[in-house]
Specification:
Blueprint: H1 2-13, E1 18-21, H2 24-31, E2 39-43, E3 46-51, H3 56-62, E4 67-70, H4 76-87, E5 91-94, H5 101-110, E6 115-118, H6 120-128, H7 132-152, H8 162-175, E7 180-181, E8 186-189, E9 210-215, E10 217-219, E11 222-223, E12 226-231, H9 237-256, H10 263-276, E13 288-290, E14 297-301, E15 314-317, E16 320-323, E17 327-330, E18 333-337, E19 342-344, E20 353-354
Parallel strand pairs: 1-5, 3-4, 5-6, 12-20
Antiparallel strand pairs: 1-2, 2-3, 7-10, 8-9, 9-12, 10-11, 13-14, 15-18, 16-17, 18-19
Helix pairs in contact: 4-5, 7-8, 9-10
Length: 355
């Protein structure tokens, strides 16, 4: 298993005797175990997955490269102490970004002689580059989202509520192969659309409303993400101007995105265009982020991110303009970074749809 091989490489590079991994998505990434409850202990010549009786059988099927052990009535920290003593572990890596303080205290108290090193940056680095299977799964999830968007256009009409639209999007995705949602579906209409992460409400759709729909689903555990904004009825001049500005900003960012570009530089291209159009103060969030087993992964397209894009990273590109009391627009595609540019995994139309 290639993902597990990266952990063994990390042991050598960081001169560690073992690595302990507890976070649910990392459990799946490095072992294929989908239960979410357990602990991996990986050493130079052993791979052990500790879990409880609820998951032992399924883990033995999924985590083919691991010895699966039932923790029984012990704490995970006690199991770690036992294997560390058996294998004479003196220096171990842990996930500083995600481990609970309680769990870390229990581990350090159980093995007081062990030196611990935070390997969160290393794990983040490993997971940023997607392998071929990850790309296939994310592409399949995004295709389900595209299908949902095309179908929802026939469902939207004055009188239906934001909540009903969100439920229909989710129904379409689940009946077409999705195992669940990537995140809480956003459907924001009228003045609600000025809030980038608005919660769905019982507000009824009205003529003249902008409707932002930001949604995604999971396929084989991997997330998709897309946003489209439509207008019910005929758009007015201000709506057209805002929409076209956001679309131009996205196209400008896509024109430059490729391997070797610094994330903040891609963000700046879109941000400058929006600012020059007079809407700079109304674009507050970053231009995009990576996706994978989690909906927000590193790196991000933001003013503060200095990472360099690499081939086979997956990034959203989602500029927006949000005017309080008026409404907002966001257009989001999911793209695969290539040496010469990108491959867009989102195929839904981006011209201004008037329903």
């Amino acid at each position: 298993m290639k993902n597990l091989e990266t952990v063994h490489r990390l042991l050598g590079e960081r001169e560690l005797d073992a690595v302990v991994i507890k976070e649910g998505n990392c459990l799946r990434y490095f072992s294929d175990f989908t239960g979410g409850e357990g602990t991996l202990v990986v050493g130079k010549d052993y791979n052990i997955l500790y879990t409880d009786s609820r998951y032992v059988e399924s883990a033995s099927y999924e985590a083919k490269c691991f010895e699966v052990r039932d923790i029984g009535r012990k704490k995970y920290s006690e199991c770690i102490a036992e294997i560390f003593g058996e294998k004479e572990v003196h220096k171990a890596g842990f996930e500083g970004n995600t481990i609970l303080l309680r769990d870390f205290r229990q581990m350090t108290e159980a093995v007081p002689a062990v030196t611990w090193e935070d390997i969160s940056p290393d794990i983040e680095e490993i997971r940023m580059i997607k392998n071929s299977l990850e790309i296939v799964n994310i592409e399949r999830a995004e295709a389900i989202g595209d299908l949902a968007f095309n179908k929802i256009l026939n469902f939207i009409r004055p009188g239906v509520t934001e909540k009903e639209i969100a439920m229909e999007l989710e129904r379409i995705m689940q009946t077409n192969g999705a195992s669940g949602q990537s995140f809480e579906t956003i459907v924001a209409s009228g003045t609600n659309s000025s809030m980038p992460h608005a919660h769905v409400t019982d507000k009824e759709i009205e003529y003249g409303d902008f409707i932002i729909m930001d949604f995604g689903c999971k396929f084989e555990g991997y997330c998709s993400d897309m946003t489209r904004t439509v207008v019910v009825g005929k758009a007015n001049d201000e709506q057209r101007k805002i929409y076209q500005t956001v679309l131009d900003a996205q196209r400008a960012a896509l024109d430059v995105i490729k391997e070797g570009m610094v994330c903040s530089e891609v963000d700046k291209v879109a941000r400058d265009l929006i600012a020059n159009a007079g809407f700079g103060e109304y674009f507050g969030h970053g231009l995009g982020h990576s996706v994978g087993l989690e909906i927000h992964e590193a790196p991000s397209l933001s003013p503060k991110c200095s990472r360099v894009l690499q081939e086979n990273m997956l990034m959203t590109v989602e500029p927006g303009i949000y005017l309080p009391g008026f409404g907002g627009v966001r257009i989001e595609d999911l793209v695969l970074i290539t040496k010469d540019g990108y491959r867009n995994l989102t195929y839904s139309r981006k011209d201004l749809v008037e329903l």
